[in-house]
Structure formats: structure tokens, C-alpha cells
Amino acid sequence: MPPPTSGLFVDPDFPPCVSSLVRRGGTPLSPLCERITWLRPQEVWPSPRLFTEDPRLGLGRQGILGDCWFISACFALQKSTKLLHQVFPTGQCTWNKPGYTGRFTCRFWQFGYWVEVTIDDCLPCLGQKLCFSHCQDQGAFWLPLLEKAYAKLHGSYESLWAGQVVDALVDLTGGLVERWSLEDAEISIRKKMLCRMLDLKDRCAISCSVLHSKEGAGDLGEFHAFTITDIQQGVTNYGQELILIRVHNPWGRSCWSGAWGRKGDKWALMDKSESAKFLCGLQDGEFWVEKEEFLQEFNEVIMSFPVDEMEHIQSIWTDCPLLHTQQLYGSWVKGQTAGGSRNNVSFTDNPKFWLLVREQSEVYLALMQRPQTHDGTYRSHSRNVISKSTPLYAVGLHVWKVEKRRFNLQKTILSPVVAGTSSHSYDRQLHLRCELSPGYYLVIPSTFLRDTEGDFLLRVLSSGPIALSEITSRQPLVNISEDDVKGTWENREVKGQWKKDVNAGGSRNFPSYCLNPTIPFIVPSKARLVRVTLKQHCQGKHCHAIGFHVYMVPPDSSLSPFVQEPRASCVPHSYSHEVSMMCDLSPGQYIIVPSTYLPNQECDFSLYPYLPRWRGSLSRARRLLEKS
């Protein structure tokens, strides 16, 4: 008899009711809502547990929700215990144990960091059975709980109806994922893909998809995702070598009647003991496909990058660990930094980044755009919820090598790229793989259409040391050399706060901008270079878009510094914990104006003006900073 469930945690933000099932309607789920009840695992199964001892019994089955893409991606967690514990933290009190409250927490990687999603364990059921995802071993409940947390992250279960395996794998791993088209690839490329799949099958999550039905394979459906659970080499009685691929259909039923299906006639070509190795232990929904059949019937393969024991992402092409990573946030702002594709003369207005590669390296540059909700607003960091309608823009990424940091921008972008997307694509995340020699590289992310506004995250993962920095919109492209910034630096920390209706004036787009805090400092006669860093002290993981401007104080004290243009600007405002830039300033007295992009956003901050340490005294500069 199951223990009583009264007094257990019920999530007020994602309650067991219709609003958590559907938000807008329009899917086959809507008519079933009134029949769905919510039960806790101990009301569904006599002795529920989180995980099964046999990983083969942990394969996911889909249920009546159209989220095969998510179920297939969850196979990644069965490839790595560390990754499983990252997504489903250990130590959570489960059923029939003291301290059980009906509360569980999962983690997902969202736009640059891991976020926690807490849920109750009330699960949708029809009758006494789970009606959405479940494991082959129906007494294991990690998958339906993870699915519920993912549904909460997206706003409702209905929001999971149709999606991309690639996106789910990124959310579950925080890593890189490649999608390989099997339709357009040359024979040599296909062979290379299959070799890598065979080498990495025990370390990577591999999925495959049918995007449209083909003659003879209509039983596979279309727009359907599958999981590749194994790849084996075999041999026939006639000495013919084979590569057989084991595929799992999350529908949980047999759907393949090919030559190597469960009752296929090709097994007669093998010795019985050999064929038994393949057929023994097949789970519901699993079937074998020979290599040529696979290439003919499936349209694409999706492979996540493996993670080694030190939790470093590894290249799927060279097995090299990508030991060096760096990421920066940026924005495309209409009329400022939304320059569009290379077809537009305004392409150079796009955000620009320096990438310094210090030694020969295998480098991956990943561009992720932040999806917008149906009303044009951005995902809420505080609630971590996004609606089903999340339009993505066509985005691209291009990289040029420059011999030195003094170069002509217009000539550079007209020269051949070192690496670049062949076309702008509607992907949430895309990446480029490059073999880069030491030196400086110009990196430009762009949208296809000019004046398309959005936020993005640029990540660099490299086998060798790298440095990534943004070229701000007012920073001259005749840049400071690396020799200029060597040595020691004098700095002071200035602590401040943006307060609503007091000094949280927002960006220069708003009349209240002049209310922002101002921090004075002096550039001595022997110094020109000033490194300015602004850090926000966020509550939890909620970040504001921050930036700053540097103004020279006019000789006439009656004039406001704001009547002139800034001498340096760290914009567009970035959703980052820290923004920084190097300023080349003539000697004199200045103020730094830190700001959030929107007015009335409250937050504590620290500002660090770094000046080169000279033998002469900087006491006057210190006094000004202390007065601030």
C-alpha cells in the first residue's frame, strides 16, 4: 500500500493542473487534458526508484507527448555518470525514505550557465499509468521527472511538442553537438562519419532522424527522432564484413521490417551463435539496420561531443581535450550593431571580437542566440520560463586572420575567411571547427537581415591557450599591441549601487541616463592606457545587461560632461557578470558612467580603473577615487 501523499510539496509555479499541460492549444494534447490526472510515483508503482540497475532498461519511451527529440537526447545521460549527476543532482530524498517531501531538482544548461529547476513529483497519468515519458523499467522515474522539469523550463508540457535533438543535447550537456546530413554528403564523407560513430559509440550520445518518409520505410514515420544504442561489426558465413547499427524507437514498438529486422531474412547469412549475439537482449522498439540501409533510410545523424574524466569536452574528430574555454555575451541592436549579413554595406557595424591564438590549436567557435518569446520579449532569467513560440533568426559567423592588430577593416572583410558558415541558418547554436595557427583573428557574428535585434553568446573552445575580447563600437580598430599592456597595473576598487528611482538611469537611449553614478579618475601625464572593468554582483544567476562610457571632464566646470561624446564606450550592453575594455586616453580628468541597459534595474556593482604603475605618484588619482 503506497504511503500517504498529503502534506507533500506542490509546486506553485508549475501546479498539477491544465495550465501546466497546455498554454495555447493547437496540439493533439489539448483534447486529452480533462482526462489526465496527476499521481505521485508511489501511487503509480509499488516500489518506485529513481534509476534502474540495468542501463538497458533505462531507455526512454515516449508516451502521448510528441517529444521524441527530448527522449532521444536523454540517452546522453546514460553515457556519463558525471553528466547524469550534473543534470540530476545526487542526494535527493526519494520515496519510502525519511525526509521525502515530493520535491526534486534538475539542472539544465541555459545560455551560458547551469540553472536549477525545482518541481514536485506529481506526474500526468491516464488511469493509473504515466501518459508521457517513462523508462523500459517502469519502476524507474528519473526520466518522467526530468521531462517535467524541462516542461516547466519551457512553460508547459505542450511546449515540448516538436523540437530539435540538437537543442536538447546542448541543454543536457552544456557542450557541442554536430548534425550530419546523410542526404547531401559524398561517399567519402559518409564513410568518415560512420568510422567516427563506430569509434565514439561508447562515449557519445548519437541520435538519428527521419525528416521525410521514403519508399519502403514509411513505417519509420517522418519528423521523428531515434537513438543509436550500439554499432557492431559482424561477418557472414561467406566472409562478408558488415557494420550493423542498433536503433531505438522511443515509441517503444517494432517499426522496422527491413532485411536485418527482428524477423529479417538476412540473419540466415550468419552463424546462429553470431546472430544470437545481435538479437539477444533487444529492448522494445529496438532493431538492427545494416550500414547501407541506414544511409538510405535516415536523413541525418546528431552526435554530442564526449566529456573526459576531467570534465573537459573532447573533439569528436581528433579526441583532443578542449582545455581552454572562454565566452562573451553580445547583442545586435537596431541602428547600432545589427549590421546584417555580408550582403549589406552595414556588415561592419556588427559586434566584433578579437581572438588571440597563442599556439597551433584545434578551435571551435560556437554562436548561440537567445530565443525570443512570441511577444518579442526575452526569456526571463528569474523564472527561467520560455513560451512555446520561440522564433530564431538566421545567424552566421565568420573569422579572418590578421597579421597584426593594425589593419584595414574594409579590406579585411573583403578578403577570404579562415572559417565561416556557408549560409545563415535558423539554428539556436551553430559552431565552426578550425585548425588555427598562432596570431590574431577577427570574429564577426551576424544576423542575415539588417536591424534584427537579439542577444547572443559567443564561446571559444580550444586545445591550446586563447584569449577572446570584444572590440567595442567606439574603440578604434587601430588597436593597442600586446606589448603595450604588459607589466604591472595600479588599480582601485570602487563599489556602487544602482537604485530604482534614484540613480538607475539606464542606457543613453533614455532621458534618465544622466542620473547614473559617476566615478572620477585621472590619467597622469605619463600614462595613456586605462583598463576599465565593471562587475555586477547578481542575485542568484540573474544578470542585467551592463556597460559603461568614459567622458572627459570639460575645463569649464559649468558644463556637463554629457554634452560631449564619450571618449570610450563599452557597448552594446551585455548580459554578463563582467565587462571590460582597454581605453587609450590622453592625460586629463575623466568620469566613468556605469549603467544597465534599462532604467530602474537595481544591482550592486564594482568598478576597477586599472592604470599602468609608474614611478611618479598617482596620489591625486587615488584621492579622486576615494572621494567617489
From TrEMBL:
UniProt KW keywords? Hydrolase, Protease, Thiol protease
**PROSITE patterns, A to Z:** CALPAIN_CAT (PS50203), THIOL_PROTEASE_CYS (PS00139)
CDD domains per the UniProt record, alphabetical: Calpain_III, CysPc
Q: Name one Pfam family in it.
A: Peptidase_C2
What SMART domains does the annotation carry? calpain_III, CysPc
**Listed SUPFAM superfamilies:** Calpain large subunit, middle domain (domain III), Cysteine proteinases
Q: Does the keyword Protease apply?
A: yes
| Domain of life where this protein originates | Eukaryota
Note the Gene3D superfamilies from the entry: 2.60.120.380, Cysteine proteinases
Record flagged with keyword Nuclease = no
The active site of this protein is located at 68, 224, 249
Domain Calpain catalytic, chain residue ranges per copy: 8-301
The entry's family comment says:
Belongs to the peptidase C2 family.
Q: What is this protein called?
A: Calpain catalytic domain-containing protein
Q: What is the lineage of its organism?
A: Eukaryota, Metazoa, Chordata, Craniata, Vertebrata
